[in-house]
Amino acid sequence: MGGGGSIGMMNATIKNNRKLLKKRKGLKSIYKDGIYEGDKTKCEFPESSPKVTQEIIQRLKEERRHRNMKRILVFGLVISSVIVALSTI
Prior knowledge:
mainly alpha, two-stranded antiparallel ribbon, 69% helix
């Protein structure tokens, strides 16, 4: 029966992968001197006022509306060109 070498290689790969899993460390142990300091993080972000939040929301809505209009325009052009191309055949 053939395949002994490939089966042995498969078993060796699985064994090596299991060894690697045991060596994993958590993020907090890796970054113990970094941003983690116990249960608190060193990063603190400022609070925004409701006015600034509303301005950001409005700007994002406008950007989304413009992006959707561009998508609709491109989709319409592609569909119309496909229809024209198929009608000439």
